[in-house]
Amino acid sequence: MSELDADLRTDANWGTPASYIPELARVDPAQFAITVVTADGKIHSAGDSDTRFSVQSVTKVFTLAIALGRSGDQLWQRVSREPSGLAFNSIVQLEHEGGRPRNPFINAGAIVTTDEILSGRAPRDALAEIVQFIRTAAGSDDIHINEAVAASETAHGHRNFALAHFLASFDNLKNAPEMTLGTYFHHCALEMTTTQLAMAGRFLMDAATGPRLLSTARVRRLNALMLTCGHYDGSGDFAYRVGIPGKSGVGGGILAIVPGTAAIAVWSPGLNRYGNSLKGTEALATLARKMNWSIF
Amino acid sequence: MSELDADLRTDANWGTPASYIPELARVDPAQFAITVVTADGKIHSAGDSDTRFSVQSVTKVFTLAIALGRSGDQLWQRVSREPSGLAFNSIVQLEHEGGRPRNPFINAGAIVTTDEILSGRAPRDALAEIVQFIRTAAGSDDIHINEAVAASETAHGHRNFALAHFLASFDNLKNAPEMTLGTYFHHCALEMTTTQLAMAGRFLMDAATGPRLLSTARVRRLNALMLTCGHYDGSGDFAYRVGIPGKSGVGGGILAIVPGTAAIAVWSPGLNRYGNSLKGTEALATLARKMNWSIF
Amino acid sequence: MSELDADLRTDANWGTPASYIPELARVDPAQFAITVVTADGKIHSAGDSDTRFSVQSVTKVFTLAIALGRSGDQLWQRVSREPSGLAFNSIVQLEHEGGRPRNPFINAGAIVTTDEILSGRAPRDALAEIVQFIRTAAGSDDIHINEAVAASETAHGHRNFALAHFLASFDNLKNAPEMTLGTYFHHCALEMTTTQLAMAGRFLMDAATGPRLLSTARVRRLNALMLTCGHYDGSGDFAYRVGIPGKSGVGGGILAIVPGTAAIAVWSPGLNRYGNSLKGTEALATLARKMNWSIF
Amino acid sequence: MSELDADLRTDANWGTPASYIPELARVDPAQFAITVVTADGKIHSAGDSDTRFSVQSVTKVFTLAIALGRSGDQLWQRVSREPSGLAFNSIVQLEHEGGRPRNPFINAGAIVTTDEILSGRAPRDALAEIVQFIRTAAGSDDIHINEAVAASETAHGHRNFALAHFLASFDNLKNAPEMTLGTYFHHCALEMTTTQLAMAGRFLMDAATGPRLLSTARVRRLNALMLTCGHYDGSGDFAYRVGIPGKSGVGGGILAIVPGTAAIAVWSPGLNRYGNSLKGTEALATLARKMNWSIF
Fold first, then answer.
1. What superkingdom does the record give (chains A, B, C, D) (predicted)?
2. Least confident among B91-95, B200-204, C261-265
3. Do the Cβ atoms of B262 and B295 come closer than 8 Å?
4. Is this complex's ipTM strictly greater than 0.90?
5. Is C91 on the interface with A (CB under 8 A)?
6. A90 touching chain C per CB within 8 A
C-alpha cells in the first residue's frame, strides 16, 4: 500500500479537479489516499487517509440502499437499471426515455432516489436518516455535511434544477423540486475520509465484518449496478481495466468492493476525461491486479 | 438440471422468436436446452441439448477473442468498450460517436471486429480461421455454417449494409462493405448445440479444463465486456438479475461464464423485449441463484 | 368571409383543445372567428370575433419585435434563426445546440427573448412595456392579462422551468429563472379578440395603415421567421399548404400576414397534431387560395 | 449586375469548395457568375456565366417536379415536407422519423424522390427523362452529365449508400439501392452554366415566359419547399437574409426564384459553413435588397 502510494506520486499527471463549484475547484489535486478494509475487519491505509473530502456521487450508493430498504422493488418503476450511454448529466436521454432515468447513479436517477427517501418529510428529517445510515455503516459519528459546499451546489445547480423540473413534468417527482434538490445537494456535500468511506462500505462485501444492513441478494444487486453504471460513461472502461464494482464522485473519491473480500476507498481529486478520479482509478487497477481481485 | 428444465417448461410463456428472417421466425419457440461444463471438465445437460441452433451474435465473443489475438489493444482504436444506451442495431449512436462503435458486441462493433479479422483476405480464409477457432475451443469438428441462414441474412441485411457503409464513410472499414458483411453474415450463421457451445466457452472460465486460448488477463477483460455489454440494452438488467457474464444471440442462445467455475450454454428461441432468450435468461437466473454463482 | 365561416362549421371535426392546463382544456372547441384587416385599413370579420381567447405563443411575435427594438441583432448571439426539427417543447435539441435555442418561436427561444426584454427590471415593468406595445399596435387599450391562466401556467410549467434552468446552466439566462418565467407566463396569458389581434398585426404588413413600429427591413425578417418557424414542427406543412407567414398559439389563435396586403387573425381552439389550430389553418388555406394571397 | 459582380470580387473571402470528391475540391474558388431571367424573357448575366459547373443538389428541384408530375401527392407518403433541424446528410433524424425523410431536398429525401422516378426502369431510362425535362425547361439541348463526377460520387458515396440501405430497411425504397443511387449520382453530376440554370428555372416564376411545366398551385408549393428547406440547415438564415425561395448545391450553384418576376442562377464554388455558396448567397442578398425582391 505504501509502495502503491509512493508509485502513484511519482507520476506528475494528477488530472483536473471538478471546476463547476469553487469549493471543489480550489482543492489541491496532488493528494492521494487509500484505505482497504478486509473481510477479517483489518484496516490498511496509505496517503492522506485522514483528510476529509467531498464524497459527492459516492453517496448515491448509500441513498440507493436506503431507498431499496424503504420502497423495495417498487423503486424500479421510477428508475431503470441500464448503463447510460451518454454523459452523466445529460438531459437528452431522459426525454428519450419518457422521464424514467436510466439508472440510480446518474444525476436524474439519484434525484428520483432522493425523492423516494424524502417522501413528504422535511428535508432535514430525510437527511438525518441518510447521515445516520452512513454513520452506522461506517461505525463513526464524526461524519458531517459541509454546508458551504451544499450552498454552492445549490447556487450552481441549474442543470440539476432542470433535471428535477423535467422529472416533475413527467410526473416522476413526488416532492417539490426545491425540497428534493435541497436534500440531494446536502447529502452530496457529506465529507468523509477514506478510512470512514471504506468502513462505510463494509456491508457491501457481505462478509462477517461490520453491520449487516442489506440482505445478500440485495448486496449483490447493488454491486452489479455499481459495476455496470458506477462510473458514468467510463463504466465499461472501469470494468474492463479494474474488474470490480465501484462508485465514483466528482470530489475524487471512489468506493470499490471486492465481494466477500474487501471494501476499498480511494481519493485523489484530479479527474480523468470521464469525470472519475484519475489516480484513484489507477490505484484500484494496480491493486486489483496485484491482489488478483478481479471478479472476472 | 432436469428439474430446472421441467420447471421452465411448465410456464407457457416462451417469448417470440426473431422475425426478421424466415429461417429464425419459423423455429418452434417451445424448445429449451442447457449444458454446463464445470472446471473439472464434467458436462451436465438437460433438454434439447443435441439440437443445433443458429448462434448468431454469440459468435461475437469468439470473433472478439480472435481479433484481440491478431491485433491486440490496437483494436480499441476502432471500437470502444462502453455499454450502448440504445437499441442493438441503432445507427444513431454511431453517428453521435463519430463512427466508432460503442462496443464489439453491438452489430456495428462486431462488423468492425470482423473487418479486423478479414484484413484483406478472401472471406473464405477469414471464415476458415473463425470456424477453426471455435472447433478447437469446443473440441469438435462437427460445427458448420448454415448457408441458407447466411443467404437470408444477406438478403434481409439492409440495416447491416447501412451500418457498414456508414462505418466506411468514417474511414472505419478496411475492406469493401460486401466483403466484410459476407464474412459477418456467415459467422453469425454458425450452428451449434448447447453442448458444443458450452464446451467452446471453457477457455473463458480460465480453469484447468479445455484448451487455453487467451491469457488470464485477456479472459477477464472479455468477461468484463460480456457483463457490461453482452445483452444489448438489457445488459444492466441481466447483470442485476443473473450476476454473471454472458453473451446472447437472436437465435435464442446465451453463453454464460462463472469465472473459474463453469461455462454454461442455454438455448430457447423465444426472445424477451430486449431481444435476449426469455427462458434462457430465466434458467440462468435460477441456476446462478441456486448454485450461488453470482460474481457479486 | 361569412361563407368561409359557414363552410368551416359544417365539418364536425374541430380538433382538440390544449389539455395541459384546465383553463385551456375546458374551452368549447366548436368556436371559430376570423378578422382580416386590409392595407386600406378596412376590417372584415366573421364568427366569434368579439370573443377573447388566450393568445399564448402568438405573443412571441410581439416580444420578438420588442427584443429586436431593444437589442438589435445582438439578440442573435443568444438564439438562432433556424426551423426546429423536433417537437416544440423539446429539450433535446437545446442540449445538442449548446444552450442556444433554434429560433425565437419555440419555447426556449421565447424564454430567451423575454429574458432580453426583462433585462434586470421587475417583471411588472417588462410586462407593462409588452402590453403597451401590443395595445399601441392594436389601437386598443382594452387588452389584458388573464391572471388565472398565468397562475395555472406557472403551476403546470415544469417543462418551461426545466428549459429556463437549462438555459441558465449554459449561461444563456440573464435574470433568475423565476423572474423570466414569471414575465413569460404572464405575456402568454394575454387575451385578445381576433379583431384586436388582426389590428395588432397591421405593422407586419408594412402598408399605409396602422402604426409603424419596425423598419421595412425588420418587418420582412420577422415575416420570414414566421414563415420558416411559426408553426412548430408543422411550419413546412403550413408554408406548403397556406403559403403566407403566420404564428400560432396553443390557445387556437393564429396571426397571419399577407405582406403589403392584409393582416389576418383566426381563432378556433381545437388543435391539429402539430399543436396548431385545426380550423384556423383550414380557414387560412382556403382564404389564401381564394384571394390568391400566397407569397410564392 | 456588372457592379454586383465587381463588388463581390473585391472581397477576398471566397469560402471553401466542397472537398469530399476530388472533382469538386480542385475547382478554383475565385469564380463567380450570375444570370437573371425576368418575366418578360430578358436575360441578364455577369461574370463567368458561360462556365459549366456541377449542379449537384440543385437538380433536386427538377427531380421533385418530375416525381410530383408522375406520382402526385402520393409522394408525400414517402417523404415529409418539414425543414430538417440537423446537418444535411444526417442519418440520425432518419431513424428518429422511422425511415421517412424530413423533406425532398435533404439527401435521403432526394434518394426517395429519385427512387420514385426510377420506378422499376433501367437507370438510363430514368436519367433520360430527367435530362430531357431539364433541357426542355432550359430550352437547350447542350446540357450533359459529367461521367467522371458521377463515378467519383459513387466511389466516395458511402454515406449515401448507408442512407439508401437504411431507407430499404424501413421498406422505403422500391428499387435496389445501387440502381437508385446510380440514377441519383448521375443526375447530381449534371453540368450547367448559370444561363442554362436560370433559363431552366423559368417555370418556377410562373410567368408568361418559358415552358409551362407545372400548375400554378404546384409551382407555389415547390417554391414554399425551397424557402423552408432549400439550404440545408441554413434555410432559416437564407430566408431571413435573402427572403426568396432558392435551392443550393455543393457545387456552388443556387437557383432562386422571385415569383412572377425573375428566375436567378448564381454560382461561386466556395461554400459557407452551411454548405451553401458563400458569394452566391451574398449576391442574392444584395440583389434582393436592391431590387426590392423579398417576398415578405
1. Bacteria
2. B91-95
3. no
4. yes
5. yes
6. yes
